[in-house]
C-alpha cells in the first residue's frame, strides 16, 4: 500500500519552474530517498507535501486522502512528521522536555480538563510520558534526558530533533538533510537510528540527503530529482548504475553496479 502518492505536481516561482509534473510514491514501511543536485527542487517538494506550499497543478495523497487544501496542522494530525535542514531544538530545555513539547497532536487534552486534573487528562499525561520514555530508549537518549539540548553536539541535537518528530506518532516522516554537518561517526549513528525507527516503529520514511553513501546503504528505493523533474528512480544499485544519474549527479568516477536487481513491489 502506498502511504504517499505524489502525482503530476508542478509549481513555479515567477519564471522559475521549480517542479514540473513530479510523480512519486512511498510504500508502507519503506525508506525512500530523494537525491539530486542543489536547486533541483527537493525541499520545494517537501514543502508541497507538508503544506507550506500549494502547487500549481497535481495531487498529493496520504493514506488515500487528498492533502491539497489541508493546513500543515491538519497534515500533522493525519500523521505526517518532518524535520528541517537546520537543527531546530529548544536549547534551553532538557532533552526530555524537547520531546514532551509536541505531545500527541492527534489526541489533544482540553485546557479545562488539564486545569481540573480530570482522570482523562491524567491518563493522557501518563501515555505521553510513557511514549516519550520509549523514544528516549529507542534513540539511546535516556542517559542524556536531563541535559540541556543546546549543550549537545550536532549529532545528538539531530537525534533529539528526530525524537521530537516521533513524539507526534507519525506514519510518514519527512527528513530534510538530517546528516548535514555530521562527521562519519555521527552519520553511522544516524543511519542506525533511522533503520530502528523504520523496523521497530513501522514508520515510513522519505528523506532528502546529499550523503550518497548513506542513502545507498539504508534506502529501499530512490528518486533522483534534477531541474524540477524526476530523471531516474529505482533500487539503489539501479540508480547508481544509471548513466544519466552518473553524468548529472554522481560524477563520472562512480562505479556502475551489475544489472539484475529486483524490481520494486
Briefly summarize what is shown:
The protein has helices at 42-50, 72-78, 95-100, 111-115, 119-138, 154-167, 184-201, 212-218, 236-240, 243-250; strands spanning 2-13, 16-27, 31-35, 57-62, 65-66, 80-82, 172-176, 204-208, 221-226, 229-234.
Radius of gyration: 19 Å
Count every helix, treating DSSP H or I runs of 4 or more residues as helices. Answer: 10
Strands across the major sheet, in which order?
6-7-8-3-9-10
Order of helices and strands: EEEHEEHEHHHHEHEHEEHH
Let me know the number of strands: 10
As a percent range, the share of strand residues is 15-25%
Shape: globular
Distance N to C terminus? 10 Å
Biggest sheet, in brief?
6 strands, mixed
Round the mean pLDDT to the nearest integer and report it. 86
Structural class: alpha/beta
**Portion of residues within helices:** 25-40%
Low-confidence stretches: 252-263
Descriptive overview:
This protein is an alpha/beta fold and 265 residues long. It contains ten helices and ten strands. It has helices at residues 42-50, 72-78, 95-100, 111-115, 119-138, 154-167, 184-201, 212-218, 236-240, 243-250, and strands at residues 2-13, 16-27, 31-35, 57-62, 65-66, 80-82, 172-176, 204-208, 221-226, 229-234. Strand 9 (221-226) and strand 10 form a beta hairpin. Helix 6 (154-167) packs parallel to helix 7. It starts with a strand and ends in a 15-residue tail after the last helix.
Amino acid at each position: 500500500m502506498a502511504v504517499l502518492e505524489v502525482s503530476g505536481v508542478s509549481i513555479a516561482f515567477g519564471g522559475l519552474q521549480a517542479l514540473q509534473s513530479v510523480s512519486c510514491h512511498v510504500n508502507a514501511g519503506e525508506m525512500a530517498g530523494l537525491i539530486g543536485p542543489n536547486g533541483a527542487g527537493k525541499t520545494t517538494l517537501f514543502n508541497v507535501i507538508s503544506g507550506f506550499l500549494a502547487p500549481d497543478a497535481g495531487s498529493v495523497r496520504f493514506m488515500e486522502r487528498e492533502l491539497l487544501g489541508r493546513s500543515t496542522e491538519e497534515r500533522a494530525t493525519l500523521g505526517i512528521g518532518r524535520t528541517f535542514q537546520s537543527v531546530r531544538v529548544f536549547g534551553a530545555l532538557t532533552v526530555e522536555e524537547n520531546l514532551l513539547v509536541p505531545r500527541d497532536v492527534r489526541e489533544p487534552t482540553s485546557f479545562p480538563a488539564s486545569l481540573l486534573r480530570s482522570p482523562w487528562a491524567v491518563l493522557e499525561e501518563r501515555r505521553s510520558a510513557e511514549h516519550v520514555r520509549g523514544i528516549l530508549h529507542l534513540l539511546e537518549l535516556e542517559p542524556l534526558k536531563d541535559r540541556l539540548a543546546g549543550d549537545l553536539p550536532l549529532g545528538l541535537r539531530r537525534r533529539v530533533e528526530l525524537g521530537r518528530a516521533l513524539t507526534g506518532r507519525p506514519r510518514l516522516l519527512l527528513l530534510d538533510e538530517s546528516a548535514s554537518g555530521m562527521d562519519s561517526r555521527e552519520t553511522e549513528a544516524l543511519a542506525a537510528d533511522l533503520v530502528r525507527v523504520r523496523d521497530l516503529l513501522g514508520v515510513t520514511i522519505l528523506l532528502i540527503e546529499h550523503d550518497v553513501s548513506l542513502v545507498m546503504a539504508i534506502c529501499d528505493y530512490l528518486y533522483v530529482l534534477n531541474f524540477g523533474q524526476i530523471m531516474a528512480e529505482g533500487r539503489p544499485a539501479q540508480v547508481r548504475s544509471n548513466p544519466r544519474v552518473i553524468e548529472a549527479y554522481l560524477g563520472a568516477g562512480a562505479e556502475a553496479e551489475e544489472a539484475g536487481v529486483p524490481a520494486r513491489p
